[in-house]
Design brief:
The chain is mainly α. α2 packs antiparallel against α3, α2 packs parallel to α4 and α3 packs parallel to α5. It starts with a helix and ends with a helix. The longest helix is centred in the N-terminal third of the chain and has 14 residues. It has eight helices and no strands. It is elongated. Belongs to the PPR family. P subfamily. This is Pentatricopeptide repeat-containing protein. InterPro entries: PPR-containing_protein, TPR-like_helical_dom_sf.
């Protein structure tokens, strides 16, 4: 990964800028290596440079972050997905379930409401769980 970052720095120094494929390749490697902090930093850089990450990469990053219980970064990646309209039903439902099971009910309710408002369908079992938990 150090070589990849060095290569990206050299590209910019020589007037060539990374494209979405370069970002995607590095992100896949970071996800595979479970480099949580680096995933967020690179995603933010990608968005800053006006490249939209693929839904599959964001889904993979979200799953890894939820498994590691890194809530701050998970929420930031979720916001990137919402902001770029790449959040899907499957990862949205998984996100709400994960928040519920980890005793983060206020956040689960907030994000569930946001998902419904943005047209992401939540499973009825998840809505029932939220309702019964309240």
């Amino acid at each position: 990964m150090d070589v990849a970052y060095e290569f990206m720095d050299e590209m910019v120094f020589h007037g060539a800028f990374p494209n979405s494929k370069t970002y995607s390749w590095i992100l896949k490697s970071l996800i595979k290596s479970k480099k949580l902090l680096e995933i967020h930093v690179l995603l933010m850089g990608m968005v800053k440079n006006e490249f939209v990450p693929s839904p599959s990469i964001c889904d993979s990053a979200m799953n890894l972050l939820m498994d590691s219980k890194d809530w701050g970064t998970t929420l930031k990646v979720w916001k990137i997905m919402i902001m770029n309209d790449i959040a899907g039903e499957e990862i949205g439902n998984s996100f709400i379930i994960c928040l519920c099971y980890n005793k983060r009910l206020p956040e689960a309710c907030k994000y569930a409401e946001d998902m419904i408002d943005s047209g992401i369908k939540l499973q009825s079992s998840i809505l029932f769980k939220l309702r019964s938990s309240l």
